[in-house]
Amino acid sequence: MSYPTSMSAITIAKTGGPEVMEKTEVPFPVVEPGHLVIKIDYAGVNFADIYFRYRIYSYKGYFPFVIGKEGAGTVIGLPTDTTVRDDPEYQKRGYKIGSRVAVSMPDHVGSYAEYVSIPWTTAYPVSDSIPVRVAAAALLQGVAAISFMEEAYAVKEGDTILIHTIAGGLGTLMCQFAKSRGAIVIGTTSTKEKAEFAKKNGANHVILYKDEDTVARVLEITNGEGVHAIFDGVGKDTFESNFRMIRRKGTLVSAGFASGAVPPFPPLKLVEKNMRLVQPLMGNYAYTPSEVSYYADALSSHLSNGTLKPFVHKEYAFTTEGVREAHTDLVTGKSIGKLLIKISA
User: Fold this and answer.
1) How many CB atoms lie within 10 A of CB 54?
2) What's the pLDDT score for residue 330?
3) DSSP assignment of 129-176, as one string?
4) Most buried among 86, 264, 291, 337, by the most CB within 10 A?
5) Looking at the whole model, is its pTM more than 0.85?
């Protein structure tokens, strides 16, 4: 199949704030024999994109590069490598021209573009019952919620857990998933509007961290015992207080660092309560082809049966101005749930 020679994409030529992002024309991605070629309909906006923009996360390539870790769209090209096409795992996924897939970019960049070319192993099949828009909104946070709450800490019935920033894209789906497993969910958020959203989303208790003493409220709710697990995507600003809110033999899952990286600390800090600290990466749970298939099936199932219901705050235009606005809204805390960029017209 012949492809265009160029495409539109959002690129950055240097590190910096939202102003370094520009919509430009770039060469069509290199198509390898084991790749799927995908026309992107929606790209998800994530803190990881911001970390790459600032080079908090390192990228092994060179400037300029196309930003964006997550997307969803339609397959327009299949692998030409016969060993791939004969692979049982590949055949199990049933890819064909016109198949709908969600993508987590293998190098963590490249989805803010009209087309991507990626190894077939890193694509997530999307069932016919799930709209592409929903798949784009659910992939990274959905698989993270499932894997973190199955593998980093296995949430179970009767647990009391704390989810920081519970009205964000990840917090929303974590709350839904934890409730489906029978947990009591405490969440933190910044505004009354977000608190109401979180309560409607299933949270049992919501703490306005700007107005309330989070530690005191958590200990009050748990009768002084603390929570079984904390899922923290904030990082630096909440790290120290987590140790006061976790119960003996509890687990702290450090799921991100929206406020900055956690500073070094002595491992002896964990001894006081015999607690566990986990710093998981979704891509290390969904790493092998069989693991990706497991989480693709799990995500599809939970979306189809209504366990997971991503909330899209806003769709942004595939323009320089639109993407800059999306990043600004994410980092300033203006959004609830997930932000998407509408790539295809």
Assistant:
1) 13
2) 94
3) TS-HHHHHHHHHHHHHHHHIIIIIS---TT-EEEESSTTBHHHHHHHH
4) 337
5) yes
The HSE-up count of residue 271 (CA atoms within 13 Å, CB side) is 5
- Determine how β-strand 246-254 pairs with β-strand 276-278: parallel
**74-99 burial code (b ≥16 CB/10 A, e <16):** bbebbbeeeebeebeebeebebeeeb
Segment 36-68, tens digit of pLDDT: 999 999 999 999 999 899 987 878 888 999 999
Instruction: Tokens for 257, please give them.
Output: 């660092």
Residue 337 pLDDT exceeds 80: yes
* Nearest by Cα to 241 from 278, 199, 209, 205: 209
Which residues on neighbouring strands pair with residue 185, listed in sequence order?
Answer: 161
In single-letter form, the type of residue at position 3 comes to Y
Per DSSP bridges, beta strands 115-119 and 35-45 are antiparallel
Say if strands 123-125 and 100-104 run parallel, antiparallel, or are unpaired: antiparallel
